[in-house]
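Journal club side-thread
Mid-discussion, someone asked how the predicted structure for our own chain would compare to the paper's figures. Pasting it here so we can look after the session.
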Amino acid sequence: MKKIFLTTVIMVIALAVNAQTTAGAYIFDNSGTPTNVRNAPNGKVVKKLPDTDAGYVVTLLEAKNKWWKIAPTIYLYGDEEKEINLKGSKTGYWMHYSVLQFNIAGDPENVLRETPSPKGKPLKIDISYLMETGLRPLEIKGEWIKVVTTDNRYTAWMPIDRICDNPLTTCP
């Protein structure tokens, strides 16, 4: 009985250590061309997402040199909500950070910090500026995500649970 319990505890600890935090983002690509999904950072295009008035939402899995590996299901929101299941890549699906965006859910005051910690020094940024600009994801560290404003003016850390990844509404 002790052996089974100990094995179970070790498995739970191993799963917790290997668990990776994920975050969501919406696609914001104002290039006027379809948004590319690739099979590797800067790799072959495996899917072109057409420009739409609706919003695409992706799940971010891991970062690598300003590229994000995304989950193989993309959600399309708008008049017609649907899932787009990606196929054709054995190496995963990747998007460049420059087409990914999200906002801060709730009150943005003191959310952005210099370090990935609730004790990190808050950035002093005008709230109206934060409400007008979006944030782009750079990397994930535990329950924190490193972000840069869309104009590259500020770089900071924020808790992942404060992400608003809905492109059509503001999150409470």
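Post-session note: The radius of gyration is 18 Å.
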